Amino acid sequence: MSDTQLLICGKNFKQEERDRLSAAFPAAFVDGPADIAALDAGLRASLRAVAFKGHTAFGAETMDLLPQLGLIANYGVGYDAIDVTAASARGVKVTNTPDVLSDDVADLAVALLIAQARTMIRGHAHAASGRWATEGEIPLNRKVSGSTVGIVGLGRIGREIADRLAAFKMDIHYTSRSEKETPGWTYHADVVSLAKAVDFLVIALVGGPETKGHVSRAAIEALGPRGVVVNISRGSTIDEGALLDALEAGTIAGAGLDVFENEPNLDPRFLKLDNVVLQPHQGSGTVETRTAMAVLQLDNVAAFLEGRDLLTPVN
Ligand code: 8YV
């Protein structure tokens, strides 16, 4: 049997993140959960912790390949790729990286909303191509300050988004599992009622089976022709087919999207639209925040392997 206790699992780990983890603990590396079965059985038997980064499923069968597994430390606040019920049933703890990324994700949500409403992608192309000088101004666009926004999910990130948009003098509406203490924002018990009441709908839900398709075709229809969807959560939280239908037909005005159902392979229908602003799931993607996430993940691994309390357990 090997004495390596840590497995770094995820091809998207940056070299410095891998180096930081393996400087703290001798570690093995795989590209993703599907590669764990191919590891030497002696190594698998010694592994006690997995540092995980990615969005491919980490399920019960993978856990069963690691008989000493006690921790899956996720790089990210959203841990929908990990079967937490299966982990709990096996006595495996799961940790995530909350809070440290909320500012960045909220910033990107606001940026997507403004970029869509103010046609900034078109504006950039117009200025950068020289057409401004030859063709004159772009068409007038749309005022953001003072409009009405609905936040779907007023958790940590949703709250940061709402606080920012309140500074834009926007009228804030929201849905949440229960009504929250707010400075007079309007609570809606369901997403269709929320969508009916607002122009901008910002999705800040957790991912996973409970929220799959939560922003339904009916909610998208309720948003109406001035409606703009912003999604920084998971592609799964909205009915993506219904969203594409509405964007193509112009039954809503547009969308600003950082997440997609089948990312990084976008539905090709997205690529033909001119009423969307698309980003490559980069909500938390600043040097500062990704460093903080990596350090928090390592701190959880260290706490576990050294027998201390976990910092940010989810089960
Ligand atoms: C990812 C995210 O973790 O935190 C989350 O839930 O979606 C992101 O921050 C990041 O893209 C690494 O996979």
Structure report:
The chain has 315 residues and is of the alpha/beta class. The chain folds into 2 domains: 6-98 and 288-305, Rossmann fold; 102-278, Rossmann fold (3-Layer(aba) Sandwich), CATH 3.40.50. The protein has helices spanning 15-24, 41-46, 60-63, 84-89, 102-117, 120-129, 131-135, 156-166, 191-197, 217-223, 240-249, 287-305, and strands at 6-9, 27-30, 49-52, 71-74, 93-95, 148-152, 171-175, 186-188, 200-203, 228-231, 254-257, 276-278. It has a 7-stranded parallel sheet with strand order 8-7-6-9-10-11-12. It has a 5-stranded parallel sheet with strand order 2-1-3-4-5. α11 (240-249) links the parallel β10 (228-231) and β11. α1 (15-24) packs parallel to α12 (287-305). The longest helix has 19 residues, at 287-305. The radius of gyration is 22 Å and the shape is elongated.
Task: Please render the helix and strand layout as text.
Elements: E1 6-9, H1 15-24, E2 27-30, H2 41-46, E3 49-52, H3 60-63, E4 71-74, H4 84-89, E5 93-95, H5 102-117, H6 120-129, H7 131-135, E6 148-152, H8 156-166, E7 171-175, E8 186-188, H9 191-197, E9 200-203, H10 217-223, E10 228-231, H11 240-249, E11 254-257, E12 276-278, H12 287-305
Parallel strand pairs: 1-2, 1-3, 3-4, 4-5, 6-7, 6-9, 7-8, 9-10, 10-11, 11-12
Q: According to CATH, what is the class of the largest domain?
A: Alpha Beta
Estimate the strand proportion: 5-15%
Please bin the fraction of helical residues.
25-40%
Q: CA-to-CA gap between the ends?
A: 29 Å
Radius of gyration, whole Å: 22 Å
**Can you tell me the CATH architecture of the largest domain?**
3-Layer(aba) Sandwich
Q: Tell me about the biggest sheet?
A: 7 strands, parallel
Q: Any idea what the CATH superfamily of the largest domain is called?
A: NAD(P)-binding Rossmann-like Domain
Enumerate how many helices there are, as a single number.
12
Task: Round the mean pLDDT to the nearest integer and report it.
Answer: 98
Number of strands: 12
